[in-house]
What does this fold into?
Amino acid sequence: MGRRFAMGAIGAAAATVLAFAGMTAPASAAGPPTADQQCLACHGMPGLEKPLTGGGTLSLHIPGDTFAQSVHSLIGCTGCHADVNLASHPAAVEPIASKRNFSLAMVQICRTCHTVEFEQWGQSIHAALVREGDPTAPICTSCHLPHAVTRGASESLDAVPCRMCHAAVFNAYAVSVHGVLRRGGLAEAPLCFNCHGAHDVSVASAGVGRRDVCLGCHTEAAASHRAWLPNVDLHFGVVECPVCHVPQAPRTVDLILYDSTTQKEVSGPVGMPKFEGLTGSTTATQPGLDPTTLLLLLKVTNRPGIEGKTSVRGRLELTQGVDNHALTFAFKAIRECNTCHREGSAAFQSVTVSVAGPTGIPIRYGVNKDVLNSAFSVDAIGGFYAIGGTRVTLLDMLLALALVGGVAWPLAHLTMRWVFKRYLNRTPHEQPKG
Ligand code: HEC
Ligand code: HEC
Ligand code: HEC
Ligand code: HEC
Ligand code: HEC
Ligand code: HEC
Ligand code: HEC
Ligand code: HEC
Ligand code: HEC
It folds into this structure.
C-alpha cells in the first residue's frame, strides 16, 4: 500500500516533520526525547484529570511508552500540541466542554501533515454526518488513537476501526468468503476499506460504484458470467452482485428517483412536500404508494417549469444493507433463471421507492408491488421488469422454449428483445450510469 503522506507547505508542525524526516531509528530505543519527557513528567502520571464544563472529567494521562512506540514519536508532543507553552502551561489553559468538542478542535492539526486523507475524509458520508452534528460519526481520532498510532494497525482484520461502530456488518463480513480468506492470510481478499475506502467513505448504495469496485478486482467476472448468463451488462446493471452471491437474503426492487440531467438520486422529501403524504409508509412490508400515485408523483415532479426531469431506475437489491456482506463461495450463488424469471418470484414481492436523505443516505418508502405490473407505470419505470417475474406469461413460455429447446442465446435474446419492444413499445433499455 503506497504511502500517501503529504506535508503541509507551511506551519510549525510541518517544519517539525522536515526536521525529523531523516530520522529512522525508533525513538523507543532511548526512551522519549527530553522535550517529551518534560510533558510526560506530568502527563505520564496515571490519574491526572481535568473537569469538563459539560460534566465528567477528561483523563490527561498519556502512557509514555505507548507513545514512544508510535509513528508520531518522530514529531514529539509539540508536533501536534504546538500551542502548549511550558512557560504558562498549565495555568492558562482553556475550559473544555466535552471530550468530543476537544477532539473536533484538535483533529484540525492532522490536516497539516496528512492533507490528502483530511480532504478525502471531508468528502465522506462520515464528515457529512459530523457536519449534521452527529456525535457518533467518526473523525480522525475515532479511528486512529493519536498517541498510539502504529504502522499498518488499521489494516488488520482484528483492529480494523470500522468494526467498533458497524459491529453487525463486521460479523456478517467475518464469516463471508472474503472474511474467511482474509482471516486465513489472503491479503488480497478485501477488508472494509478495500470496498468502501477508509477516508472517502460514500453512501453505500450510491449509484453502481460498489459494483465497479467488485469488478476492479474480479476483472474476469463479466467474461465468466457471460458463459452462462445472457445480457450480462444488463444483469450487472440492474441486479446487484450480492443479490445472487448471498442466496438466502431477502430481496427488494428499489425504484430510485433520479434526476435525468445530473444522473444523481433526487433528494427528498425536501422539494417534494407531498411525498410522505402520498407514500404513507417507510417500510416495504406495508404497501404504500400504488401505481396510479407513482405516476401522479412523477407528473407532479415533472410538471412544466420544474428544472430537471425526474426518472425512475429500478434495481434489484438486498433488503437489509448488512446482508451484502455475507457473500458466499461462488458455487452456492443463484444460477437458476426462474429464481427471478417466473410469475410470483420472491424477488419481486417487495418494492420500495427511494430518494436521497439530507446526508445522501437514501430514504426508502414502501410501494405496492403492483407498480411493477402496472401498465401505468411501465413508461415511468423505464422498463424494469424481469421476464415472467413481473409481467407477461408469453415471455415465460419463450424463455422456457429457449431453454428447453437449446436455442442459441444470441437468437433467443434477439427474439426476446423484439417481443419486448413490440409489446411495450418502449425505448431501448436505459443502462444505469454512475
Ligand atoms: C507541570 C505539569 C505539566 C506539564 C509539564 C505539562 N502539562 Fe499539560 N496539563 C497539565 C495539567 C494540570 C493540565 C490540566 C489543566 C486544567 O485543568 O485546565 C494540562 C492540560 C493539558 C492538555 C489538555 C488541554 C487543555 O487545554 O486543558 C494538553 C493537550 C496538554 N496539557 C499537553 C501538554 C504538553 C504537550 C506538554 C509538554 C509540552 C504538557 N502538557 C506539559 C500539566 C502539565
Ligand atoms: C499526532 C498528533 C499528536 C501528538 C504527537 C500528541 N498528541 Fe496529544 N492529542 C492529540 C489529539 C488529536 C488530542 C485530542 C484527543 C483525541 O481526539 O483523542 C490530544 C489530546 C491530548 C491530551 C488531552 C487528553 C486526551 O486524551 O484527550 C493530552 C494531555 C495530550 N494530548 C498530551 C500529549 C502529550 C504529552 C504528547 C506527547 C507525549 C502528545 N499529546 C502527543 C494529538 C497528538
Ligand atoms: C507534524 C506532522 C504530523 C501531524 C500533525 C500528524 N501526523 Fe500522522 N504521521 C506523521 C508522520 C511523520 C508519520 C509517519 C509517516 C511514514 O513514515 O510513512 C505519520 C503517520 C501517520 C499514520 C500512518 C500509520 C501507518 O499505518 O503507517 C496515521 C494513521 C497518522 N499519522 C494519523 C494522524 C492523525 C490522526 C493525526 C492528527 C491527530 C496526525 N497523524 C497528525 C506526521 C504527522
Ligand atoms: C472511519 C475510520 C477512519 C477515519 C475517520 C480516518 N481514518 Fe485514516 N485510516 C483508516 C484505515 C482503515 C486506514 C488503513 C487503510 C488505508 O490506508 O486505506 C487508514 C490509514 C491512514 C493513514 C495511512 C495512509 C497510508 O497510505 O498508509 C493516514 C496517514 C491516515 N489514515 C490519516 C487519517 C486522518 C488525518 C484522518 C482524519 C481526516 C483519518 N485518517 C480518518 C481509517 C480511518
Ligand atoms: C465512530 C463510529 C464509526 C466508525 C469507526 C466507522 N463508522 Fe461508518 N458510520 C458511522 C455512522 C454513525 C454512520 C451513519 C449511520 C449508519 O448508516 O450506520 C456511518 C455510515 C457509514 C456508511 C454509509 C451507510 C449507508 O447507509 O449508506 C458506510 C458505507 C460506512 N459508514 C462505512 C464505514 C467504514 C468502511 C468504516 C471503517 C473504515 C467505518 N464506517 C467506520 C459510524 C462509524
Ligand atoms: C466486498 C466488498 C465489501 C466489503 C469488504 C465490505 N462492504 Fe460494506 N457494503 C458493500 C456493499 C455492496 C454494500 C451495499 C451497497 C448497496 O446497497 O448498493 C455495503 C453496505 C455497507 C453499509 C451500509 C449498510 C446499510 O445498512 O445500508 C455499511 C455501513 C458498510 N457496508 C460497512 C462495511 C464495513 C464496516 C465493512 C467491514 C467489516 C464492510 N462494509 C465491508 C460492500 C462491501
Ligand atoms: C444472476 C446471478 C449473478 C449475478 C448478478 C452475479 N453473479 Fe457472480 N456468479 C453467479 C454464479 C451462479 C456463479 C458460479 C458460476 C459457475 O460456477 O460457473 C458466479 C461466479 C462468480 C465468481 C467466481 C467465478 C469468477 O468469475 O471468478 C465471482 C468472482 C463472481 N461471480 C463475482 C460477481 C460479481 C463481482 C458480480 C457483480 C458485478 C456478480 N458476480 C454478479 C451468479 C451471479
Ligand atoms: C480487493 C479486491 C476484491 C474486491 C474489491 C472484491 N473481491 Fe471478491 N474476492 C477477492 C479475492 C482475492 C477472492 C479469493 C480468490 C478468488 O476466488 O478470486 C475473492 C473471492 C470472491 C468470491 C468467491 C469466488 C469463488 O471462486 O468461490 C466471490 C463470489 C466474490 N469474491 C464476490 C465479490 C463481490 C460481489 C464483490 C463486490 C461486492 C467483491 N468480490 C469484491 C478480491 C476482491
Ligand atoms: C437474481 C434475479 C435474476 C436471475 C437469477 C436471472 N435474471 Fe435475467 N433479468 C433479471 C432482471 C431484474 C432483468 C432486467 C429486467 C429489465 O429491466 O428489463 C433481467 C433481464 C434478462 C433478460 C433481458 C431482457 C431484455 O430486455 O433484453 C434476459 C434475456 C434474461 N434476463 C435471461 C436470464 C437467464 C437466461 C437467466 C438464467 C441463466 C437469468 N436471466 C437469470 C433478473 C434475473
